[in-house]
Design goal:
By secondary structure, this protein is an alpha+beta fold. It is built from 21 helices and 23 strands. Helix 11 crosses helix 16 and helix 17 crosses helix 20. The protein is elongated, with a radius of gyration of 33 Å. The chain binds adenosine-5'-diphosphate and magnesium ion (MG).
Length: 635
């Protein structure tokens, strides 16, 4: 190799990497030992990748099929090397993997860092997110990566002091794999002590399925159990080991909220070790909506991209499923519509939902946090339908008009339905606060009828396909056809009884309704006396057979439907303004004021719904006119 090639090329790190490295290098972070966890985790991933590639290209591991990771401290040179015989990297791999932020978790960290101008929390964040490969610079003043990709002849050497740039040159390496050599900083020499290394490996990396050997003198000693963690008996696994495995498999840094470890024996055999995170992963609503469970076959990693293994609405679940029955050389094609896989999925989904339900019963407060994190994702399963719908309906939680801030299950709801109530009332909209102010729920609240408040965009969709829970139909309160007359209003202490003489005569109200209808013509479906209003003068509702107002607006926004359908205008005979108008109707059924009043009230109801006014100019003219009259009368 000539010296020019060896000098190689100098490249700048992506700007984000430089920022991150600044932080890492200048960190006073006390938990520096995690660098080893990160590098060992990468070495193990590299072995998994090659093991998988070798299923179809056995020549890749020919002559060296025993995967291993070696840790070699050299006290004299002040270096620590982490060596693997995994898949290795070629030139392009090096540039894109170690020069940019490829890893999404690290990207999320950088984002947080940028958002958080007050840097005091940063060091804790490193611990929470981990920064992968770059954590090496917490302990090393120089990092050299010497690597050769399996199946390729050329080796490459990447080197950096973590200050803005790195070099890549051709290198030399006897076989495939990667050696990461750290020139340790003065204050990190403790990590050259074999006993210290051994304890770090046992603490963080015991679950790694590849043997990890530490070199001491001439001896190489395996320090981890080197067997797949999920194959060990539950009783022999500590919660720390579960957590470390979760960090490794999920590339996450929170604690698992739920750990689900089972072996299924019988006609199909598999083991699952799955985790529900305690915090919301940042990519939960990525458009791809991919699930995050890895498929193994008899301890061999097969793929982390097998859509049929788990439904997308469980995409917050992380971990592994290891099958005893699938053939090792499964390909993407044979995994599609594979009956064994279908049965595994069915059983695993049931198990996960069952464990979540148990937790809901045992720890309702923790469950509420889980639901805030992942409820919207689970509801996608309701929309999808299928055999898990009932289980999902039991898991669902909602805000409601009587929830006092907590969450309500459908079982709670049904359990406290009023006598004569046969439907589950709900209202959908953009925010809980706005829904609580909706005129349409007034009459329900007054009668002590609970209304569920739905604000997840997905709610509108599953409510179109799920029609009932325990034989009780879901009913939007923004649709007509609810007979509130049969429910008695709940009397509140100190509330005035409305005297009979105050109430307008039914005939006068009928006259007013007729006058409104005549004025509004076919801009509305109908004008009706409302049972659902107790305070507001008017509101809009959909026709009895119509669509819920909110979903109709969503569909319209997405151009799924043409015009909004005509609404029913309901008027409240108990409202002062409506009473006054009814009084005038008694005197003069053709009072010209009715036209202005009807139009203004209709527009007002539209504004409350967040619907556009068809003629804002006319609205403003009428308003001005009426205000002028009011002021003149007051003067
Ligand atoms: P992550 O492991 O989450 O992807 P890292 O920052 O730890 O992020 O590593 C970045 C990338 O560098 C890895 O995704 C991998 O492609 C590559 N890499 C790191 N270490 C090795 C290694 N020992 N062998 C092969 N590739 C590696
Ligand atoms: Mg990594």
């Amino acid at each position: 190799m000539d010296s020019e090639a060896h000098q190689g090329e100098t490249r700048q790190f992506e700007a984000e990497v430089s920022k991150l490295l600044d932080l890492v290098i200048n960190s006073l972070y006390t938990n520096k030992e995690i660098f080893l966890r990160e590098l060992v985790s990468n070495a193990s991933d590299a072995c998994d990748k090659l093991r998988h590639a070798a299923l179809t290209q056995p020549e890749l591991t020919a002559g060296d099929s025993e995967f291993r990771i070696e840790i070699v401290p050299d006290q004299a040179a002040g270096t620590l090397s982490i060596i693997d015989n995994g898949i290795g990297m070629n030139r392009e791999d090096l540039v894109s993997n170690l020069g940019t932020i490829a890893r999404s978790g690290t990207a999320a960290f950088v984002e947080q860092m940028n958002a958080d101008k007050d840097k005091s929390g940063d060091m804790a964040l490193i611990g929470r997110f981990g920064v992968g490969f770059y954590s090496a610079f917490m302990v090393a003043e120089q990092v050299t990566v010497s690597t050769r990709r399996a199946g390729e002849a050329e080796a490459w050497e990447w080197q950096s002091d973590g200050r803005g740039s790195f070099t890549i040159a051709q290198g030399e390496r006897a076989g495939r794999g990667t050696t990461v050599t750290l020139k340790m900083r003065e204050d990190a020499k403790e990590f050259l002590e074999p006993f210290r290394l051994r304890s770090i490996i046992r603490k963080y990396s015991d679950h790694i399925a590849v043997p990890i050997k530490i070199k001491e003198g001439d001896k190489l000693e395996t320090v981890n159990q080197a067997s797949a963690l999920w194959m060990r008996p539950k009783s022999e696994i500590t919660s720390e080991q579960y957590t470390e495995f979760y960090h490794h498999v999920a590339h996450a840094f929170d604690d698992p909220w739920l750990t689900i470890h089972n072996r299924a024996e019988g006609t199909i055999e598999y083991t699952n070790l799955l985790f529900v995170p305690s915090t919301k992963p940042f990519d939960l609503f990525d458009p791809e909506r991919k699930h995050q469970v890895k498929l193994y076959v008899r301890r061999v990693f097969v793929t982390d991209n097998c859509p049929d293994l788990m439904p997308t609405w469980l995409r917050f679940v992380r971990g592994v499923v290891d099958s005893e029955d699938l053939p090792l050389n499964v390909s993407r094609e044979t995994l599609q519509h594979n009956p064994i896989l279908a049965r595994i999925r069915q059983a695993v989904v049931k198990r996960v939902l069952g464990e979540i339900e148990k937790k809901a019963e045992k720890a309702p407060e923790e469950y509420a946090t889980f639901w805030e994190n992942f409820g919207a994702v689970l509801k996608e399963g309701l929309y999808e339908g299928g055999e898990n719908r009932d289980a999902l309906l039991k898991l669902a939680r909602f805000h409601s008009t009587t929830d006092e801030g907590g969450l309500v299950s459908l079982t709670d709801y049904v359990g406290r339905m009023k006598e004569g109530q046969s439907e589950i009332y709900y209202i959908a909209g953009d925010s809980i606060a706005a829904l609580r102010r909706s005129p349409q729920i007034e009459g329900f609240v007054k009668r002590g009828l609970e209304v569920l408040l739905m604000t997840d965009p997905v709610d509108e969709f599953w409510l179109q396909t799920v029609h009932e829970f325990e034989d009780k139909a879901f009913r939007s309160v923004t649709r007509g056809g609810v007979d509130l007359g049969k429910f008695k209003a709940e009397e509140k202490e100190g509330e005035d009884e409305k005297s009979a003489e105050e109430a307008p005569a039914a005939a006068d109200i009928d006259t007013l309704v007729a006058a409104f209808k005549a004025t509004l013509g076919d801009t509305v479906q109908d004008v009706r006396v409302s049972q659902r209003l107790t305070e507001s003068p008017v509101c809009l509702v959909a026709d009895d057979s119509g669509m819920d107002l909110h979903i109709e607006r969503i569909l319209k926004q997405h151009n799924q439907i043409g015009d909004l359908s005509k609404r029913v205008l309901e008027i409240n005979p108990d409202n002062g303004l409506i009473r006054a108008l009814a009084g005038r109707a008694a005197e003069n059924a053709a009072d010209p004021l009715f036209e202005t009043a009807a139009q203004l009230l209709l527009d007002q109801a539209r504004i409350l719904e967040g619907e556009p006014l068809p003629d804002p100019g006319a609205f403003s003219r009428r308003m001005t006119e009426l205000m002028a009259k009011g002021i003149a009368a007051a003067a």
